[in-house]
């Protein structure tokens, strides 16, 4: 592997914003794995007798990207999720078998692995509190035992690269232990050990990107001088897919990394060059501990402190591959592995083109509230505060829905911007995500997408967006945004009972303006603190939620007029 140095190569970097190489995104990784993977059938889909692979962590960053790559490679896929309904809307949902299973529950995971040839273990509790090591250990043990009992042919696990003989950070030590548990299962196991993963939406890439873009000058800890061997997410996916075909006598760990070995300082300077930014002034100081560094990272980047700390602690070690034995089983692609510069350009192209398929915030964080919505039939009762507002909008349902689905992120919340910024800052101070998580896609949402300090809990396209609060509050909170017919006796299509009182439903009545924008904020307080919180913020609801309703309606009406000016009839919806 080459020990590339930024100062020697920056002059060779391409002009900002220009990638002279073809975009790799449309091409499945299996394209260069001929002979290793079964390949799709004549209809472009996996054959009925193709090997069956089970994938855990499908709502996560890597798992969500691995599923379509496995399908393209000709494998049948069984997606395992605690809440399968949250996978609806994924582009591959109809092409896989979706099974409800919690990897920590022996009976559930044993049944889910029945008949499986290869099982991908992509679970870890990164940034999930002080008990993550015990939780990771128990879940890995349950999974290993279930895989052995079900007769699984191979386990594939993505772990972390670490130096031998050093005391590891808690996060890196836990990931190492998980790999050892799986290797001891009796099932042939492939453990892939990677350092920094470079790809649009990865936590490591986002941390580096925001640090470099937002700080033209910075003081940094000593670990920025440690050597790192980053790897492009596309190469990670290629190794994961290729590992499914390893022979039964191979059961071991493999180091995986890209062709460049860089310090974190060099990575930031290279990123600045590729992104068209001036060279950064980076001053190294000896006093920043990993804890202080993670707090600094959480203030500057969207990555919260609970996630930043294990990432920073991992960077305290030099993480460089000791071997490249993986090439004996998954050969390097004809053009070689993707270097740092190209990986960054490809990631930036996806970010700028709003085509980030998965993101570090995609996975539901362990410990996130999962109580039922207070209006659900099974709710146990208790205090419930509701702020409900409705307004008639002179726009088609489609125009209003486009505005509703695009709330948050760079577009903001269509009301008192300063109040939202202050609330986001206060949330970050007390350890919440704040507003810096933004959105995965500026216009489209999926269930479980993070939207600033909210998460999409339910999505009915064209009808309903329900957001669950993940900010730090003494209770549970939701925000519902609905598009409803102006005529109370008329329901939109595809809804049970979609007919008015006098006869069949009239589709034109739903496509044409006006329409109702219904907005509902719900809060279930916990104790006296929750009661005090509600009444403390209640005086601001008129400004925040009232302003939001007026401005969303105004934006939809403006969009409707623009469509009319372009000659698009309002009845087209």
Automatic annotation (TrEMBL):
<dbReference type="InterPro" id="IPR051207">
    <property type="entry name" value="ComplexI_NDUFA9_subunit"/>
</dbReference>
<dbReference type="Pfam" id="PF13460">
    <property type="entry name" value="NAD_binding_10"/>
</dbReference>
<protein>
    <submittedName>
        <fullName>SDR family oxidoreductase</fullName>
    </submittedName>
</protein>
<dbReference type="InterPro" id="IPR021295">
    <property type="entry name" value="DUF2867"/>
</dbReference>
<dbReference type="Pfam" id="PF11066">
    <property type="entry name" value="DUF2867"/>
</dbReference>
<feature type="region of interest" description="Disordered">
    <location>
        <begin position="1"/>
        <end position="48"/>
    </location>
</feature>
<dbReference type="InterPro" id="IPR016040">
    <property type="entry name" value="NAD(P)-bd_dom"/>
</dbReference>
<dbReference type="InterPro" id="IPR036291">
    <property type="entry name" value="NAD(P)-bd_dom_sf"/>
</dbReference>
<feature type="domain" description="NAD(P)-binding">
    <location>
        <begin position="57"/>
        <end position="194"/>
    </location>
</feature>
